[in-house]
Amino acid sequence: MAIYSNGTSIANAATLNATVLTGALPAVSGANLTSLTSGNLTGALPAISGASLTGISSELIGFGARRDGVISVASDTYTKIVYNQEEWDSSSCFDTSTGTFTVPSGEGGKWFLGVTNVWSATVNRPYTVVWYENSVQRVSYHTVGYGASWDPPSSSTSDSLVTNLSASDTIEVYCSHYDAGGSAANLSGNDSYGFATHFYGFKVAS
C-alpha cells in the first residue's frame, strides 16, 4: 500500500522530505542517534545527570602552610625556609618537616604559588625570597627594604608566580638578606599583629 502526503507518494523513499509532512510526529526513541551537532538543536535541553562525568572535582587542589618559630638567617646566604605548620592540604602534597611542596599524582598543570616572609628587622637591608623547582634555583625573586616607620619595625617580603608543573615536581622557598657587617637576621613565625610567614599554592588549570 502506498503512503501519500498532500497527494505525493512517499512509499519506499530513501529520503523523507520534511516539506511533504504535516501534523504532529509520533514519539520516537533517540537511542540510535549519533553525530547530532549542536547546530541541529533548538529549544531548551532537558535536565541531565552528571553522575558519569569523570575528571571533574569541586575540591580546590593545593595547600597552605606557615612558619611557627624564628629562623636565624646568615647574611648573604640562601637559607631554606621550613614552613612547619599546615593550614590546609587537600592531597597530602606538603611536607612540614622539609618545607617541600610536591605536585600530587595526576595533578600536573598550571599552579599558582605565593609566599610572604616576615622579618624582625632592626636595620635597613635588602631581603630576598627565591623559588627552587626540583632543587634548582629559578630566576623569579623579589626584594624589599626595611620598614623603619612600622610598629614594630619589621619587613615583609612577598612573591607569587603561575607556573607549569608536572606530577612529582617539587617547589621549595629560600630566603636571603645582606648586611654589610655580616650580622644575621631573624625570620619571624608571627609578628605582634599576627602576620604569619606563610607559603601556599593551588592548581588553576590542567
**Unreliable residue stretches:** none
Q: List the secondary-structure elements in sequence, H or E.
A: EEEEEEEEEEEEEEE
Q: Termini distance?
A: 60 Å
Strand content: 35-45%
Question: Counting H and I runs of at least 4 residues, what is the number of helices?
Answer: 0
Number of strands: 15
Nearest-integer average pLDDT: 82
Biggest sheet character: 7 strands, antiparallel
Oligomer description: single chain
Cα shape: rod-shaped
Structural class: mainly beta
Rg calc: 31 Å
Q: Give the helix proportion (percent range).
A: under 10%
Task: Describe it.
With 206 residues, the protein is mostly beta strands. 0% of the residues lie in helices and 40% in strands. It is built from no helices and 15 strands. The protein has strands at residues 4-5, 8-9, 62-66, 71-73, 79-80, 85-89, 94-95, 100-102, 109-120, 127-133, 136-144, 155-165, 170-177, 185-188, 198-205. Strands 3, 4, 6, 9, 12, 14 and 15 form a 7-stranded antiparallel sheet that branches. Strands 5, 7, 8, 10, 11 and 13 form a 6-stranded antiparallel sheet that branches. A two-stranded antiparallel ribbon has the order 1-2. β7 (94-95) and β8 form a beta hairpin. It is rod-shaped, with a radius of gyration of 31 Å. The mean pLDDT is 82.
